[in-house]
Amino acid sequence: MVLKVLALTLIVLLLALRLLRGRFGSALLGVSETVLDLTYVGLLAITLGVSIWAEQWLLVVVCGVLLVLRGIEELRRRGRERRA
């Protein structure tokens, strides 16, 4: 039961960080966008590990989807930088 609560708490934190990862979030929290991005990816990896360990497969799927979305965002950002 404790692992379920921990995994769900981590998912809520991930979603909050996902919403705050930008200029608004960095200004609100007072840290750079890079720090927020690294924190997001780190928390995503921790949540994925806890979800696998707790055998919460639905949460593993949520983490997988968020990881894929992060990868797509990074590919788009790199493509824009190449064109500029």
Summed up:
By secondary structure, the protein is mainly alpha-helical.
Descriptive tags:
single chain, about 80 residues, mainly alpha, about 90% helix, about 0% strand
Put simply, the count of helices is 4
Helix content estimate: over 70%
SSE order: HHHH
Q: Provide the low-confidence segments as ranges.
A: none
* Number of domain units: 1
Tally of DSSP β-strands = 0
First-residue to last-residue Cα separation:
50 Å
What structural category arises from helix and sheet content?
mainly alpha
Could you tell me the mean pLDDT?
A: 85
What percent strand?
under 5%
Task: Provide a descriptive summary of the structure in words.
The chain crosses the membrane at residues 38-69. Keywords: Membrane, Transmembrane, Transmembrane helix. With 84 residues, the chain is mainly alpha-helical. It has one domain. Helix content is 88%, strand content 0%. It has 4 helices and no strands. It has helices at 2-20, 23-29, 33-53, 57-83. α1 (2-20) packs antiparallel against α3 (33-53) and α3 (33-53) runs antiparallel to α4 (57-83). The longest helix has 27 residues, at 57-83. The radius of gyration is 14 Å and the shape is flat. The relative contact order is 0.14.
